Amino acid sequence: VYCGKKEYNKGLPYYEKGIEVDPKFPSNYFRAARIYCSSTEEVWGLIYGEIFMNLERNTKRTAEISKLLYDTYKSEIKFTNDTSMTVSFCQNMTMNVNSISDPKNMKLPFCMIFEPTLLMSIVSEKSININSLDKIRSNFIDNYFKNERDKTYPNILFSYQKKIKDAGHIEAYNHWILMKGEEDGFDKWRLANKDKWENFLKWFNENGLQVDNLNKFYSGQY
Q: What is the DSSP letter of 180?
């Protein structure tokens, strides 16, 4: 009802509560992703949108979110010159008093973890397209786990991406996630990588993202 009135900030908490209490229901992820990707906190839109695509494959809504994720990456990663770049996926740096009460276990806002890790993952790229985003996303997972961010900020999506990478399918998976943002680029990649694509599809059908009440993600966890 709130979103029908374009009062998105009032409607969003209900979608997120829905994700928390019924994590297998795709529509809440879909709607939350659309709202967040039009806000200053796109990071949550990226995560919710990708979880949605894993829960609801091969529908018109899946295609819509694929393009939305690609466009969000492309609009928020900017190369200022040959040696520097900026990312802008979140602005919320608010810290809870409880998170700083113990300096040895201080927990930073997720934005202060996500953006530096992403920047570190872009350094060898000079432009944004489906192939460079595949490399950036793959680097991100490497850096996230190498720096043990998963221990402080566990995330079912990032853990699943690592599982995909360890199985040798991350390139195909990333191209699937972003395929509707650059369809020509995806088609060229698929034609040049038929075996990778077919092997991924077979693995993907048998190894989907498992979401339940014990294995879920919602932004309130951070």
A: G
